[in-house]
Amino acid sequence: MSGPFFKFCPRCGSPMSTQHHGGMDRQACTNIPACGFVHWDNPVPVVAAIVEHEGDIILARNVLWPGRFFALITGYLEKDDPSPEIGVAREVKEELNLDAQAVTFVGHYPFPRQNQLIIAYHVVATGEIKLNEELAEYQRVPPAEAKYWPAATGLALRDWLISKGHQPEAMQFS
């Protein structure tokens, strides 16, 4: 744990302290007998799509990102999604207006900086691209020319490219 998330218990308002629960140090309510709240700080599941549209990979730039970095389509796995596969198809539809024709699991990847677990899929999609309000722009990249970034969704892209017989290069950041 990198530092206190809560100063006070979100359930009863008592001070929080570091206590040992479930084999690890975690934040917990000091009002143990009456409240007993423990902040487990489990990672949030996020679905990611390597979208293949008309033979190209579609990468997008979020409106909140500085610069011109493009990445995979991602979104939180919603509690009403019947499965991660349906969740990733929903995200592709919401963000790109594309219909998933085939969804194939690529792998799962930790993203500790955001306390997320990325569940990545290759999504073959059809339709006309129309960006929603979350995305500023997109780019098409032929798989043979794709480069990956060395974290989370970038590692999923790398693994998928290798599985398709490509030898992708890592992006160089200055």
Automatic annotation (TrEMBL):
Residues 42-163 form the Nudix hydrolase domain. It catalyses: a 5'-end NAD(+)-phospho-ribonucleoside in mRNA + H2O = a 5'-end phospho-adenosine-phospho-ribonucleoside in mRNA + beta-nicotinamide D-ribonucleotide + 2 H(+). The keyword Hydrolase applies. Its cofactor is Mg(2+); Zn(2+). GO terms for cellular component: cytosol. It comes from the Bacteria. One of its GO terms (molecular function) is metal ion binding. Keywords: Hydrolase, Magnesium, Metal-binding. GO terms for biological process: NAD+ catabolic process; NADP+ catabolic process. It holds the Pfam family NUDIX. Belongs to the Nudix hydrolase family. NudC subfamily. This is ADP-ribose pyrophosphatase. It comes from Stenotrophobium rhamnosiphilum.
